[in-house]
Design goal:
single chain; 391 residues; mainly alpha; 3-stranded antiparallel β-sheet; 3 strands; globular
Amino acid sequence: MHAEPTPRASVAPASLSLVTVLVVALILGGFATVAWVTRTPGVTHSNDDALYMLLGDQLTHFSYRELFKVGAPRHGQYPPLWPALLGLTQFVTGGSETARFLLVTALMTGALALFFDLARRLLPLRLAVLVLAAAACNPFTILSAGRVMSEAAFLFWTILCLWALQRARASGDDRRFLLLAALAALAAALTRTIGLTLLAGVVGAWLLQRRWRSAALLATLTGVLVGGWLAWTLFNHEGVVGRSYVADAAQVTQDKSVGSGTASPVVVMARKVALRVRLQLTDLVPSGLPFPTLRGDGRRQRRLAARDARPRRLRRRGLLATPPGCDPVRARILRAALGLALGAAAVLRPVAAAHPPRLCARGPRDAAPVETDGAAQRTPRGRTRRHRGLG
């Protein structure tokens, strides 16, 4: 039988005061203004935005081909929802570049507004405003709101899904919010393929809540819509290395570094994941850390490391100096690990001092104080034990 979950009691969020509304409006308006002023006019050197626009124009003609390539092959890398939104914008406005940027900025601003409404239902109001301000000042958020990329749309669909799930739970499982959450999750997966993880999370949560019908319906829609797109990519991947995981798993790439010629697609995927992890650990993550990179070419570099504003003990031992002949990338990772270890030690030291470890655990009765009265000693259990002398 279909067991519907019992609605949980939830406290409705307090109404926003006029001051809070003005502060939130100021944050959102300031974010939209900064994103618009700092936007990148035209297309960027990455060419992804130009490809989105061309695909959007193709969708207005009921086609999904790359006309700029020889033979005009079918496109099988980017999901079609974001190009469809751009194509609708081009069709309505006649190809206005300003309209495309307005769409991106509006989606990112709307995502922040939903994010604040979700945060104020889960956190204290002041903390929710502070979190909104931090999200609005995020350089990645501002950059994504000023480029014709799919990040803004994907973030909007994701936050809309989470917001609808929370509203459904707070309103006693309102079907309108459940339907909105399902549609938003599907839209996220059709905007960026990584949205499949959001769909899996929603279906898994509904299964744990014994919402069998909703989970089965969403899984069916996922198989039809997202599965149809994945099948399209399987037959239209073009065999270009790195274009899609489907292309790599189909063993059509000629790059030996990702497992060409292997008998199993699992080996291909495993090698590709290994390459991505190595790239993250040795390039992307260390380059974003605020630690300097010094080449180990002798005494001069060691003197520069010694002048760095670090603890004296580290300067004495030369832990921050790159040894001669050491790989700069490895040296950067070692310095990052050392900094993280020192930070963790600084945080855990007062905690350990406030809660010293106990050598043995005793019960409340065994831990009672022992009273002595001359030759007699009273034990914690109330019995009297006398000490016998040697004579």
